[in-house]
Amino acid sequence: MANDIAIQFRLLPDRLGAEAVAGHINRFWEPRMRARLLQQIATGTTGLDPLVVAAAGLVR
Amino acid sequence: MTLLKEPDRGTPAKPGAPTVTVEVDGLPVAVPDGTSVLRAASLAGVDIPKLCATDSLEAFGSCRLCLVEIEGRRGTPASCTTPVADGMRISTQTPKLEKLRQGVMELYISDHPLDCLTCSANGDCELQDMSGAVGLRQVRYGDDGANHRDAVKDASNPYFDFDPAKCIACSRCVRACGEVQGTFALTIEGRGFESKVSAGAGESFLDSECVSCGACVQACPTATLQEKSVVQLGMPSRSVITTCAYCGVGCSFKAELRGDELVRMVPYKDGGANEGHSCVKGRFAFGYASHPDRKLKPMVRDTISDPWREVEWDEAIQAVADRMRDIQRRHGAGSIGAISSSRCTNEEVWVVQKMVRAAFGNNNVDTCARVCHSPTGYGLKQTFGESAGTQDFKSVAAADVIMVIGANPTDAHPVFGSRMKRRLRDGARLIVIDPRRIDLVRSPHITADYHLRLKPSTNVAVINAMAHVVVTEGLIDEEFVNERCAGYPDWAELVARPDNSPEAVEAITGVPADELRAAARLYATGGNGAIYYGLGVTEHSQGSTMVMGMANLAMACGNIGRDGVGVNPLRGQNNVQGSCDMGSFPHELPGYRHVSDDAVRTVFDRHWGSSIQPEPGLRIPNMFDAAIDGSFHGLFVQGEDIAQSDPNLQHVTAALSAMELVVVQDLFLNETAKFAHVFLPGASFLEKDGTFTNAERRINRVRAVMKPRTGKHEWQIVCEIATAMGYPMSYDHPSEIMDEIAELTPTFAGVSFEVIDKLGSVQWPCNPKAPAGTPIMHIDEFVRGKGNFVPTPYVPTDERSTRRFPLVLTTGRILSQYNVGAQTRRTGNVAWHPEDVLEIHPHDAEVRGINDGDLVTLASRVGSTSLHAKISDRMPTGVVYTTFHHPVTGANVVTTEHSDWATNCPEYKVTAVQVGLTHPMIPALAD
């Protein structure tokens, strides 16, 4: 699902894209979903869009 | 309230100020130019006898009863077809007119059964009334002549009879079918004395193209077309004005009762949404409310394999409270949640989200709008600043170009569909964007200028290509864009790219480039352009993107902020708009304000004595995932059947099975109740007191026709659960809930039951700036200030056809059934749709050896089911279609988990499937 969000914001410049992805996730995802995403990023789960990985630091 | 008989002025009102003054029997009256003498007289307080005239229809001038004399003019013209002229002096009662009218009435009565005392229309018959009004005392012609008294009654329709013996051939039914409904199923067959009303080409009403909207029954001045319920129960004696509980049009009805028994539902002429029209569901399909399947007692059980045990309300409510609190004690505050219903009133929904936020202590509340119009909420908020449609329904009458995208108004929103057809017959141009050839594409007196038959899932590619044409051909409304919008350059740069041109996307969308270009030019240059859309837009992986794409296009063409334009979602259920307004989404408090907004939360916390969490809660699909993952254990489901309506049912039922406590509040033991531990019987709309908000933001009163058969209002039950959980919630009347809504929701600040009762209905925003409401939004500026162009890149869905699943399934609904069918399957509407069928193109059927009516297997990668095939060239090759009204078919066993990227709205409209012949009917199975 995070990848689907990232694809929508690919048009934006890198930093803005990451902010948009993180902003959307922070705004609409329940904390345990965000925690699971961050855990996946932390454990190096493959298949995540680079923009999602870039947004990780901005996800609360 | 006594039986409400609305005044009938004889001919429709004309627009404009009263500039023409006439005198009727010495009484002066001023009326707009073009008004008929008949109507002017009525407005002056003089009722001229009439039979073929009624104010829902244009004048016809056939009955010769409404004759008048006009000073300075010869003869006795029919007042219905004679327009007023300034200074006209009209006489309606003269010896000459009296004699003429008596002669006319004598002829009518000479061929009419004189069984008034036993006739079902006794007391509600205009022929009877007119006989009295003209002073008819004798009929000289006897019974020996030719007559129609032996004509055979047609009782084929489940809801009304057609008795031609009582017909006076006034053509009101025929005209209502054409002018009001727009179906043109009825005609007058034969000439002179042989003239008779005929449904279709001499078919029975049931077999004809009649859609049973009831307009003909309502228009009939005699007992020729009569509700079976009136025949059986007798003429009603009192009326209650209320609102239909089916689709998002939200029609106003007079519930007409005899004692405490509901006899019939009659569309209310002053209803803002429907103005006296109805469809087969609202008009007739109310029998489910008294169906024997209804459960009226609360029930509990320890496990879902145990039998239900009826209990008293106190025990059921305490069981819910104790078990919810126990789950929270063991698994945390976020381990429980609720789903509110778009079939419930604003007040009922409000208390559910309040219970979740204040008593549960989390934001785990979502609504069934999640699976239909959540992308509308997101997309219109991002672009216009408000999660709602821009227009009132009346606005369509001022549209010059109507673009219908992914919607089927004549089936799913039939009363609005009739409005739209009326405007189309009057000359508006029509663009339909839909894979399926819906009725609007070609129906009596209507032909779409363009039917862009796109491949499912390519909406965004199509809207971007239309935008490409508008931008690259210089069709932009530059003044509107420059003065009222922001973000145009980035959006324009994207859509102007060559890869978004109609030619470039033709291979993706299947839409011929020249047709798409022509349609775009028409929308941009054809005058007022109005977009109407439905779930064919939202239920996609890019549903939100498409909503924004349409909003972008409308802004680019300046088609926002006035009568006749706009971007308008056609909402599926009666209170989708309202349930969203009431804060049913897990990220938003009422009025679409994010839960992270400290100031807003503070206002609520002060009023409620709560501590609302600042983080969003779980959406419905997230609840299911969390249940399977083991972190979500208790769910309260208000009036929804998620085990039938939600996608990938295997996943849904696995989630429900994994929960410790499922509470279902509903009229019936629905599919979801199979997984429930507590069942709380609900109230039908006839027993509710509150408000619904329709697709045009119109807040209408729902008035109780009878007391709740369960002994409790649904809002009371929710309040008692919250109270039993330790958070006291109580109201003496639902109007107090609306007062709280108004106090805490700026767009509802001016709303109260008193205001609605006074105005009839009111469209939000309703506040000190707009005390009478807001029919059209964004007139001078957008709610967010500047309209926001959002770039909308096309991203193909991950759901792809394969060799194993080469077809695409898209789902929808039909006229006679509603949603999961829980209500309409328990009415006479099953006469038209007893089962879900699979529509398949003749070519796709032939290569599979499938004949019309064959039983076929419909399989996707997640499940399969069987249903009968209907071969139809409505479908393009490669696409099949079915409905989800019957649980035995279980269409959503087949649909997948793909969803809109922004809102999680399921992608019901795109599922890769295979279809093949099968043998015996098998229940829906998961792979």
Please describe the topology of this protein.
The complex is a heterodimer of chains A (60) and B (927).
Chain A: H1 2-8, H2 14-28, H3 31-42, H4 50-55
Chain B: E1 20-24, E2 27-31, H1 37-43, E3 69-70, E4 89-91, H2 95-110, H3 126-133, E5 160-162, H4 172-181, E6 186-189, E7 196-199, H5 215-219, E8 225-227, H6 228-233, E9 238-243, E10 252-258, E11 261-267, H7 280-284, E12 299-300, E13 309-310, H8 313-331, E14 336-340, H9 346-360, E15 365-367, H10 374-383, E16 401-405, H11 409-412, H12 414-425, E17 429-433, E18 442-443, E19 446-447, E20 450-452, H13 459-472, H14 478-484, E21 485-486, H15 488-496, H16 502-509, H17 513-525, E22 529-533, H18 535-538, H19 543-556, E23 567-569, H20 576-581, E24 588-589, E25 593-594, H21 598-608, H22 620-629, E26 634-638, H23 642-645, H24 649-658, E27 661-666, E28 678-681, E29 690-693, E30 698-702, H25 714-724, H26 734-744, H27 753-759, E31 762-763, E32 787-788, E33 807-812, E34 837-840, H28 842-847, E35 855-859, E36 863-871, E37 879-883, E38 911-917, E39 925-926
Helix pairs in contact in B: 8-25, 9-25, 9-26, 10-19, 13-16, 13-17, 13-19, 16-17, 22-24
Write a brief structural summary:
The complex is a heterodimer of chains A (60) and B (927). With 60 residues, chain A is mainly α. Chain A has helices spanning 2-8, 14-28, 31-42, 50-55.
Unreliably modeled segments of chain B: none
Number of helices of chain B: 28
> Largest sheet of chain A, described in full?
none
Measure the end-to-end span of chain A.
17 Å
SSE-based structural type of chain A = mainly alpha
What distance separates the N and C termini of chain B? Answer: 57 Å
Order of helices and strands of chain A: HHHH
Radius of gyration of chain A: 10 Å
The percent range for strand residues of chain A is under 5%
- Please tell me the overall pLDDT of chain B: 96
